[in-house]
Every structure is written in structure tokens, then in C-alpha cells.
Amino acid sequence: MSFRGAKKRVALVEGDGVGPEVIEAALAVLEAVGAEIELVPVELGYRRWKRTGKAMAEEDLDLIKSCSCVLFGAITTPPDPEYRSVLLALRKGLDLYANIRPFSAEGIDLVIVRENTEGLYSGVEKLDEEEATTLRVITQRGSLRIAERACAIASKRERLTIVHKSNVLKSDNLFLRICAQTAQRWEVPFDDMLVDSAGYNLVINPKRFDVIVTTNLFGDILSDVAAGVIGGLGLCPSANLGDRYALFEPIHGSAPDIAGKGIANPVGAVRSAAMMLEWFGEVDKARMVEEAVDWTLSRGIKTPDLGGRYSTRDLAEAMVSRLI
């Protein structure tokens, strides 16, 4: 499928659960705003794993690498030791080391910049009947490049907060030191905070934050806290960025309990598509999409997770009507 004339190749991964439903809404909005992309469908995830025994194959990664970026719906990751996480495989395979998650609502405007390839998600694990071990990997290279990405964002905003647990986890001393040195070199105002204090302050005083940079697991957890503060996971987009490739996805999961009911919130997916447009340099179109989202929500057109009575398709149609 192609939109209009240009050939920006986008790997389209609808995924599992509500993934196809929210992606359908995002594609309708992209078409309405005049996005000029070529979609390359790629089937990945739990549904495929059940059918074929593989959630993702090497040839899938090769196909994705022939594209500029990925637009991603949602993936179910079962608690099965034979199942390899598709998202972790994509993050490592495409070297998507920076996870950028913006959160905004009624005076709150913050960005969590999460290291995306190491930490406790390093994949270095040992499991037997009496002991399970996961190696937390913090490297100078990984810390430096996420610090650079966070400072680049913070330099256009107000300040940076480095979130860590260096009082207990000695590996975080390396992360804290490199982030602080990088902020000083960029001349970005910064402070640092223990992760438990950051979680507390995100709930009671979220306006104190502007840009947060942190390690993989901490960023994963704090993102869900921030999502709760602004209204729910369904509102939140993300970008997984590397030096060459990018992947854009809503931060919610596959929500199998509501899949097929037509009530999944598409806002996170639509905003992820807007982040993709901005990454392509289509800043004006990205802003138009964001304005259409705000316009729709301000008129009370909301899915049940936000207390509304409208369907996924209703929201998509409202956003499209604002854009055409």
C-alpha cells in the first residue's frame, strides 16, 4: 500500500491483540494528512508463533532493514521460555538504543529518554531449578549515546534529570557519571534523582520534570507511572531510535481482553505515527495530526478507557474529519 507519490518505505507490523485495530486508525489519519509513504507489511508476533513456531525470522529482519522505519501496533509476549521477545529482538537487531516517550496533559509536558538495549534487558540470563540470574549490563558506550540523545532533546527545552539507583547499584555510578559529564559538555542544566524518588515525584509533582534520562528497566516502569498521571496508557506514543533505523509504537500492550471489541484507544498509535512524520522531517504534518488528536479529545470523543462511549473507529473518523 502506498500513500500518494513519495517512497518512504515503512515496515508495517500490526501485531497481536488490539494492534491491528489501532494501526488501522493510525493509517487512516496518515492518509488524511497526506503522508507520502510506502507500506511494507511484516507479520510478527504471538499469533504467527502459534501458527508457525516462529515469532520472527532472520528474513523478516532483512525485510525490515530494507525500509527506513517501522510502524508497530502491539505484540503479545507469553510467559513461555521458548518465546523470544519480538521487541527486544528488533531493538537489538536495528540497534534502537534510545526510547523516547513524551507525556503531555494539562500543564504536564515531560519526556522520558530510556536506554533501550542493555541494563536488565541485556538478555544475559541463567535459569535453573534453584537459581535464576539476569545480568544488568551498563556500558560506557551505551550510557554515552543515550546521554547524548537526552541532552540533544533537553538543549531545546529546559533541563535534564538523571534518574538512577547508584546508592545501591554500583553499576549506576557509571551511568550517572557519564550522563552528568555529557550534560556539562552540552551546557544543559541538570540534576539527578534516585528512581524511587522519581516515581514518587512523578505522581505528586510531575510538573517538576522536563526531560528524564534513565536506564532500561527504570525507564520502562517510570513510563507507565507517567502514563497513569496523564490519563492512561492509550494516550501515549513512543519512538525507538537508532542512528539509522527507527520504530514507532504506542506504549500500551496488546490488551487481548478487549481485542476485537472495537474500543481500543487509538490515540497512542496515532501520536506514534505523528512522531514518525516528524522523524521523516514532515514537522507540519506531524503538528496537524497532534492538533487533530487534541481537537477530538477536547470534544469529548473518547474511548471507554478515558470514560467515553466512543469506538476506535469513531475516534479515527473524528480525527480524519478534522484533517480533510
UniProtKB/TrEMBL annotation:
Keyword Oxidoreductase: yes
Family statement: Belongs to the isocitrate and isopropylmalate dehydrogenases family.
Keywords: Oxidoreductase
Organism of provenance: Candidatus Methanocrinis alkalitolerans
A Pfam family this chain is assigned to: Iso_dh
Biological classification of the source: Archaea, Methanobacteriati, Methanobacteriota, Stenosarchaea group, Methanomicrobia
SMART domains: Iso_dh
Protein name in UniProt: Isocitrate/isopropylmalate dehydrogenase family protein
InterPro entries xrefs: IsoCit/isopropylmalate_DH_CS, IsoPropMal-DH-like_dom
Isopropylmalate dehydrogenase-like domain segment(s): 9-319
Domain of life, source organism: Archaea
